[in-house]
Amino acid sequence: MVVRQGLKSLLESEDFEIVGEASDGHEASRLAGELSPDVAILDLAMPGLNGIEAGRAISRDCPSVRTIALTAHAEKKYVLAALDAGFKGYVLKSQATAQLVRAIQVVSRGSMYLSPGVSRVVVEASLRGTELPADPLTVREREVLQLVAEGNTTKQIAKHLGVTPKTVESHRSRLMAKLEIHETAGLVRYAIRRGLIQA
C-alpha cells in the first residue's frame, strides 16, 4: 500500500492519469477490462492471482492494454515468464523511481522496455536458446496451484474462485497428476520455481 501510494504520487507528478488501483491480480485484470487503460503496471507478487497470470489474462482479454511488470526479481525465470505472458515492460523496484516513467513512455509508443539489469538476462537467455519448459497446467489449474501454495484450504479456495470444494479437489487432483507431484510441499516448490509465489 505504501509503495503503491509512492508510485501514484510519482506518476501524478509526471502528469500521468491514474484511472484505477488494484490490490490483487483478479481485481487488476477486472479493472483493466472495465477501464481499458493505456498501460497497466503489475507487481508480480500479488495475492490470489499473481502478476504474471494477471498480465497473461490482460494481454489475452484486453490486447490494447500494455502491461509493465514491476518487481524485485531480476532472475531469468521471472523475466522470461513475464515476457512469455505478454508483458511489454519489466522494471525492477530498486530502479522504479528512475525508470518507471521512461518505461511507461516507451511502452505507450508500442516498444519494449527492460531495466538495464534485466536486458542482460534476456540477451544471455536468447543467446543460449533458454526458455522455461512448457507449463502443462491450464489457467484455472495454475490459479488453484497458487492458492494451495499460499496455504489456503480447499474451502477457502472454493470460496475465492466461486466454485464448489469438489471442483477444487478435481482441479487439484488433475494438476497433481499432470505434474506427478503428490504432496503439498512439492506443489509449493513447483509454484516457487514457476514464479507463481515467492519463496
Main features:
Rossmann fold, alpha/beta, 4-stranded parallel sheet, 10 helices, Arc Repressor Mutant, subunit A, 199 residues
Structure description:
The chain is of the alpha/beta class. The protein is built from ten helices and four strands; from the N terminus they run H-H-E-H-E-H-E-H-E-H-H-H-H-H. Helix 7 packs across helix 9 (165-179). The two termini are 21 Å apart.
Question: What structural class is derived from the secondary structure elements?
Answer: alpha/beta
Q: What level of helicity do the residues show? A: 55-70%
How much of the residues is beta strand, in percent? 5-15%
With strands numbered from the N-terminus, the spatial order across the biggest sheet is 1-2-3-4
Low-confidence stretches: none
Query: Can you summarize the main beta sheet?
Result: 4 strands, parallel
- Oligomeric form of this entry? single chain
The geometry reads as: globular
CATH topology of the largest domain: Rossmann fold
CATH homology-level superfamily of the largest domain:
Response regulator
- What count of helical segments does DSSP give? 10
CATH class of the largest domain: Alpha Beta
Number of domains: 2
Question: Mean pLDDT score, rounded?
Answer: 85
DSSP E strands, number: 4
Return the string of H and E elements. Answer: HHEHEHEHEHHHHH
Distance between the termini: 21 Å
